[in-house]
UniProtKB/TrEMBL annotation:
The keyword DNA damage does not apply. It is found in: Membrane. It comes from the Bacteria. GO terms for biological process: cell division; regulation of cell shape. Its main location: membrane. Coiled coil: none annotated. The chain crosses the membrane at residues 16-36, 48-68, 80-97, 166-184, 191-209, 267-293, 305-323, 343-364. It is a multi-pass membrane protein. GO terms for cellular component: cell division site; plasma membrane. This is Rod shape-determining protein RodA. Keywords: Cell shape, Membrane, Transmembrane, Transmembrane helix. Pfam families: FTSW_RODA_SPOVE (PF01098). One of its GO terms (molecular function) is lipid-linked peptidoglycan transporter activity.
């Protein structure tokens, strides 16, 4: 017999503030996409319909995710680890993998292009959190760190081989967030920072040509002939011309006249700045701050450390994506193809964000020991 009373108790434990915040962010994103895609002029709402459909499918995915206790999913962490590696290897297989924007990160399935690393973000968080859970309070020396690093190396290596530096950094942030939460010794953190700084020249030499171009462009922002600087320059012009109050929705000249590249995804924040001004940018930044703070609260209230690590992993992923996307539009960070969660156009990105949100809500819903 189904225990509906227990199910209702679980639903009551959901963080509705987090859910409402995400809905507001998405609704705001749809409004800005209507301007960024110029649907107000062309009457073509195809991309908006696709984005809306992806959100609805994402809600279905969240409901599906909530049906399984995250600890039940954690039991199969070895299988999830294997599946994750297979998905990342798949894109490197000739005839299956598809290259876009300089990275072989996609698998073509009929008319659809699937970025497998988006799926792997979720499966990796579930599996890696299980490994780190067993090392809680035992990460005081480099010897202690070796097992958890070895576990993660294949993922980072495969992402670099695509090459997809942006996604590799996302995974590093997930790993770093979890290890820090598990009590990684501060001495190791300091040494790690020094090693990264010293090895930067070697890392630069190993980068693909288009990645080197982005670094060079970032270091020479005044040279618009360098690839990437034109995008940033147009972004800065758009944001600067918006002032405090903006030019008004659908009235941004950089956006509406096509000067701002990739305005519906990578540079959607510049559209917000131009058309809604400082107030619009502050509004979305505050919403994202609330979004991250709610996840931090859920991580603290989780019934077990595995749940805490899952939420921290997801939160680290979102935090990096938000900071990276906004940072590159204002020339504070080199340009990468990282989208603004729940705002930028992109079905696979939105579905992944919703699925990971489902993981967080799964932990939240089961913060009290109620049988499902």
């Amino acid at each position: 017999m189904v225990d509906y009373k227990s199910k209702f108790k679980l639903i009551k434990e959901l963080d509705w503030k987090l859910i409402i915040t995400v809905i507001i962010i998405f609704a705001f994103g749809i409004l800005m996409l209507s301007s960024a895609t110029h649907s107000n002029e062309t009457g073509n709402y195809t991309k908006l319909y696709k984005q809306g459909l992806a959100f609805v499918l994402g809600l279905g995915m969240i409901i599906f995710m909530l049906m399984f206790d995250y600890n039940f999913l954690g039991k199969y962490y070895k299988g999830l680890y294997l599946i994750s590696l297979i998905l990342l290897v798949l894109v490197l297989v000739p005839g299956i993998g598809n290259e876009q924007m300089g990275a072989r990160s996609w698998v073509k399935i009929g008319p659809l292009n699937l970025q497998t690393s988006e799926i792997v973000k979720l499966t990796f968080i579930l599996s890696y959190a299980k490994i780190v859970e067993s090392k809680r309070g035992k990460l005081n020396t480099l010897k202690d760190l070796i097992p958890v690093v070895v576990y993660a190396i294949p993922f980072i290596g495969l992402l670099f081989s695509q090459p997809d530096l942006g996604t590799a950094i996302v995974f590093m942030c997930i790993i770093g967030g979890m290890l820090f939460t598990a009590g990684l010794d501060t001495k190791i953190i300091k040494r790690g920072i020094i090693i990264i700084l010293v090895s930067m020249p070697l890392m630069y030499m190993m980068m693909a040509s288009h990645q080197k171009d982005r670094i060079e462009a970032f270091l020479n922002p005044e040279d618009v002939t360098l690839k990437g600087n034109y995008q940033v320059m147009q972004s800065l012009i758009a944001i600067g011309s918006g002032g405090f109050t903006g030019k008004g929705l659908y009235n941004g000249t950089q956006n509406q006249e096509g000067f701002l590249p990739v305005q519906e995804s990578d540079f959607i924040f510049a559209v917000i700045g131009e058309e809604l001004g400082v107030w619009g940018m502050v509004f979305i930044v505050v919403l994202f701050a609330v979004f991250l703070m709610r996840m931090l609260a859920i991580a603290r209230e989780a019934k077990d450390f595995y749940g805490t690590l899952i939420v921290v992993g997801v939160m680290s992923m979102f935090a990096y994506q938000i900071i990276q996307n906004i940072g590159m539009t204002v020339a504070l960070i080199p340009v990468t193809g990282v989208t603004l969660p729940f705002v930028s156009y992109g079905g696979s990105s939105l579905l992944t964000s919703m699925a990971n949100l489902g993981l967080v809500l799964n932990v939240c819903m089961r913060k009290k020991k109620i049988n499902f």
